[in-house]
Write a structure and sequence with these properties.
heterotrimer, A alpha+beta (about 475), B alpha+beta (about 270), C alpha+beta (about 200), A: about 475 residues, alpha+beta, 6-stranded mixed beta sheet, 12 helices, 24 strands, C: about 200 residues, Glutaredoxin, 7-stranded mixed beta sheet, 6 helices, SCO family protein (chain C), SCO1/SenC (chain C), Thioredoxin-like_sf (chain C), signal (chain C)
Chain lengths: ~475, ~270, ~200
């Protein structure tokens, strides 16, 4: 290199280019010449460990080292969602456990410490370890004790670690998993933001949202019938104040793991396409991916450049898990709009196809735990809730309807003329031409899937609002219309 | 036990039994047969009649013991017999201190300490088979292992933190009249260090991995008994000189011949 | 008088000793000075050898001990453990052989009587002075296994399952090295034995 510099006169720019080539060549050489298991370590350092969603600093160009990892196992009560607590078993006090960041050739000296207040023995099986049990045998440790073992990381990639003490499933179901990253020589390409996200499924004695301290439910776990499917250990860990952030123009890298114990994740970010996915956390890179599958006990690295601002939702696209069980997180992006890439809503109108009929949703119609109105004001209150849920979109907040599409309910002669007809319409739907307050409407209203109580409440609300005739509709009246037909 | 062994033992019993400030009441456990989680050839184990302490040994009782036998005070005990955690919640070698209830089970006790405590009263530690035999009883049944609500209850305890600070007698009285088998502390057993998958000796290295991923299920006869798995896992993680904050003990005694220190109750005829 | 002192000492060791008289204190202190806290020579049990002599572990003080737990009716792992032991023995430096004792402790004291151990020793050509076979009681064997962290369990009337561990102790009875598994590379074990014996 020196000789090259001496023998040739080069512009600064050229020097840089040559340098870059040289460095690339140099690192290539090292990669090809030294097998990972024979890389010499230079010095010792303590590993930086981070709780999710943060990750330690990248390795960049550092040499392979002896890396000391001090991991403490803590059994502790935490919040699963509002009002629901759970005794988590954790690596480092968080679920998922502390993120460990290494590079190929590092020799990890792993200290596993089982807190004296813990009730159970634990160990750790790191998928990045080449050796029997992944370290589980060597790390088995009783409460109030510490074990130590060492391993050399040979294969680059993103790996899951977890507790493997019997009953294994229970230790994992209680939160004992995390990620260890092994970067290749020279490190992963620089990005602007990096985050740590890990999915897990939880099994509690009470169903989703049942308040109080919820114990682990063994039978549900064996049946793989999860009450909670969450990112980073609890419902809402990545929403609101917990949301991860980025700016327009930045590239984001997510280290995504799935602790299981049972469920496979269909990881998706709503409104983003992954520019790159390190499939299953390995060396194969797939590009332009919408949803990537992350097996239980597996991981993936996803990268994407952010072009527009807004909130992007992280989900398990087995979508009921996102909607009903908590598998939902947020990436909040600030910056300038780019209308070419995404316009936002440009116009809004009525879509009313000729003769179109809206189909009733198939399935069950029972609505659990119904509130029963004890008085007219109760009925009004409950009716208002039904109205805003069911009727509001078409008939509008003050019953004014939408011109030429949906008839008004306010001051409605059609309504006030016949209460039974009104009940029938709610129960059975209505299509065809009608005249309301002198205006003709030809529209379709679907049959509403409501209980008698709810029909009574919502109609009472409508009759007692916006200048109507103050009829009170009772569940009995609704029922009689049903049996009458 | 030939030669001067019995003589020695007798002298020791004489020394030990002079004072019994720390003795406690026992109940009779009628023997029987059952299949434990880890057994012998998956066959039934015969348990003979024996007496068992009604409660785990308390701080109060152990305090009397260490006052009587200073070699077991925490500043004097040999590390071969007890690690640094031994009685380390106690304020001093001869006082648990204000923060610790005398009526709470003594914990941070090594196997050696527990064993000698029992022997000094002409008792012994229960075998795993004996302990598990008593532990499968709920309030009304000798064997409640198939009762899922009972299992769920035990699992819930195993997850509840810091139960060792509660006083003895806090949990239910089981069929035999024994308290606190579940819900307070783990308990030492004489042969805790014996859990192996069946036939491990023919599988080379597997024997020391018997409680880990995958192989955990081998040899166990009831894959649904998570509570028992947790107990066996716990036993597998400890060594005889370990002292652990959630680990206490209680003693048992043979009925037939109290002078004979016979602990082999698991022979099949 | 000697016997009396020995008895007292043993009782001290069994830790049943109580409000100690001065003599007891003195003997207990002197033992403590000589032996490290972690020495297995604190174990009080009595053992029978294959020659039907009665010994305590502390009688073995001053030698490097290589110990393994087996049972003679074992058909599977034990013959291989015995072979491993013989292999180790053959690699101990010639001049150091006198400093080392190789000890096989039976985990089946009921079956493995001194007579049976003697026959086993002969059969396996392990009957010179270097080899020692020990029979204890169920309790003393369990205690000893616990010190070595050797797990064993009777799994049928004839068979035990057990960990395959060879342990090396220094001249003061402190555990210095353990080799786990069957037919494993015993380089480290032998190096340790030779090192300890050389220092002795």
């Amino acid at each position: 290199m020196k000789s090259i510099f001496k023998s040739k006169r080069l512009s600064a720019e050229k020097v840089l280019i040559v340098c870059a080539f040289f460095i690339a060549a140099c690192s290539n050489q090292q990669q090809s010449e030294t097998p990972a298991d024979q890389i010499q370590v230079a010095g010792t350092m303590d590993a930086e460990l981070t709780a999710p969603p943060n990750v330690p600093l990248p390795v960049r160009n550092r040499e392979a080292k002896k890396l000391i990892v001090n991991m403490e196992v803590l059994e502790k009560e935490g919040e699963m969602t509002d009002g629901v607590s759970y005794v988590y078993w954790t690596f480092g006090g968080s679920v998922p456990g502390s993120f460990i960041r290494t590079r190929v050739g590092d020799e990890v000296e792993f200290h596993l410490k089982n807190h004296p207040d813990n009730k159970l023995p634990h160990n750790i099986d790191l998928h990045a370890v080449t050796g029997p049990g992944g370290g589980a045998t060597s790390s088995f440790v009783a409460p109030g004790h510490e074990t130590q073992f060492s391993f050399k990381v040979i294969n680059p990639g993103l790996y899951v670690y977890h507790c493997a003490t019997a009953p294994v499933g229970m230790h994992i179901a209680n939160g004992m998993y995390g990620l260890i990253l092994v970067e290749p020589e020279g490190g992963l390409k620089k990005v602007d933001k990096e985050y740590y996200v890990m999915q897990g499924d939880f099994y509690t004695k009470g169903e989703y949202g049942k308040t109080g301290l919820q114990p682990f439910d063994m039978n549900k776990a064996i049946d793989e019938d999860a009450d909670y499917v969450v990112f980073n250990g609890k419902v809402g860990s990545l929403t609101g104040d917990g949301a991860i952030t980025a700016n327009v123009g930045e590239t984001v890298r997510l280290f995504v793991g799935n602790g299981g114990p049972n469920l496979v994740s269909s990881f998706h970010v709503i409104g983003e396409i992954f520019d790159k996915v390190y499939v299953e956390g390995g060396s194969m890179i797939n590009e332009d991916v919408q949803t990537t599958l992350i097996p239980a006990g597996g991981a993936a690295i996803v990268e994407f450049k952010i072009d527009v601002p807004g909130t992007f939702i992280l989900v398990d696209h087995s979508i009921f898990r996102a909607f009903n069980k908590g598998a939902l997180g947020m990436l909040k992006v600030q910056g300038e709009d780019n209308k070419t890439i995404y316009s936002g809503k440009q116009s809004e109108g009525i879509y009313n196809p000729e003769g179109g009929s809206i189909q009733e949703m198939p399935g069950e119609s029972d609505i659990p735990e119904e509130a029963v109105a004890q008085s007219l004001s109760d009925r009004m209150e409950l009716g208002k809730q039904v109205y805003s849920r069911t009727c509001f979109a078409c008939h509008q907040a003050n019953g004014e309807g939408i011109a030429n599409a949906f008839p008004p309910l306010a001051n409605s002669d059609y309504l006030n003329a016949d209460v039974n007809r009104a009940i029938d319409i709610v129960l059975n739907g209505k299509s065809g031409e009608i005249t309301v307050n002198g205006v003709k409407y030809n529209s379709v209203m679907t049959k509403q899937v409501l209980s008698d109580e709810e029909v009574a409440n919502v109609l009472t609300y409508v009759y007692n609002s916006w200048g109507n005739n103050k009829t009170e509709v009772t569940p009995a009246m609704v029922k009689s219309r049903k049996t009458g037909h | 036990m030939k030669g001067i062994g019995p003589l020695l033992l007798m002298i020791c019993f004489f020394l030990c039994t002079q004072k019994k400030a720390f003795s406690q009441s026992m109940v009779k456990i009628e023997g029987g047969s059952y299949i434990p989680l880890y057994g012998r050839d998956s066959a039934k184990i015969i348990v003979r009649d024996f007496l068992m302490d009604v409660y785990p040994v308390t701080n109060e009782a152990f305090l009397s013991f260490v006052k009587e036998y200073p070699t077991w005070q925490k500043d004097k005990v040999r590390r071969l017999f007890a690690d640094d955690n031994y009685l380390n919640d106690w304020e001093s070698p001869i006082s648990p201190g204000e923060k610790i209830s005398l009526k709470a089970p003594v914990t941070n006790i090594s196997w050696f300490a527990a064993k000698y405590y029992c022997e000094c009263q002409d008792k012994r530690l229960p075998t795993i088979d004996e302990w598990e035999y008593v532990a499968m009883a709920d309030e009304t049944k000798k064997d409640a292992r198939k009762d899922s609500t009972y299992n769920q209850k035990i699992l819930e305890w195993y997850e509840t933190p810091r139960t060792h600070k509660k006083e003895i007698g806090n949990t239910f009285k089981n069929y035999w009249g024994v308290y606190d088998m579940h819900g307070l502390v783990w308990e030492w057993t004489f042969d805790f260090n014996s859990v192996l998958i069946s036939g491990a000796s023919r599988k080379d290295m597997d024997n020391d991995r018997n409680l880990f991923c995958g192989s955990a299920a081998i040899g166990a006869n009831d894959l649904m008994n998570y509570a028992a798995f947790m107990r066996y896992a716990f036993r597998g993680s400890i060594k005889a000189n370990f002292a652990v904050k959630n680990l206490g003990f209680r003693c048992v005694k043979d009925i037939q011949d109290p002078s004979k220190n016979n602990s082999s109750n698991h022979k099949i005829d | 008088m000697k016997v009396y002192k020995l008895l007292i000492l043993l009782c001290v060791l069994m830790a049943c000793s109580s409000k100690s008289s001065e003599t007891e204190n003195a003997s207990s202190n002197s033992v403590r000075e000589v032996l490290p806290d972690m020495s297995i020579y604190h174990l009080p049990a009595k053992w029978h050898t294959q020659n039907n002599e009665q010994i305590e572990l502390k009688d073995l003080q001053g030698d490097v001990l290589v110990m393994v737990m087996i049972y003679t009716s074992c058909q599977a792992a034990c013959p291989r453990l015995v072979a491993d032991m013989r292999n180790i023995e053959s690699q101990i430096g010639g001049q150091l052989k006198d400093e080392v004792k190789l000890i096989l402790v039976s985990i089946d004291p009921e079956t493995d009587t001194p007579e049976r151990l003697k026959a086993f020793a002969k059969e396996n050509q392990m009957d010179n002075d270097q080899w020692l076979f020990l029979q204890g009681t169920e309790a003393s064997v369990r205690e000893f296994a616990n010190v070595l962290a050797v797990k064993y369990k009777q799994i049928s009337p004839m068979d035990f399952s057990h960990s395959n561990i060879i342990s090396v102790f220094d001249q003061k009875g402190v555990l210095q090295h353990q080799q786990e598994g069957l037919g494993v590379d015993n380089k480290e074990t032998i190096a340790k034995i030779n090192e300890l014996a050389g220092n002795g």
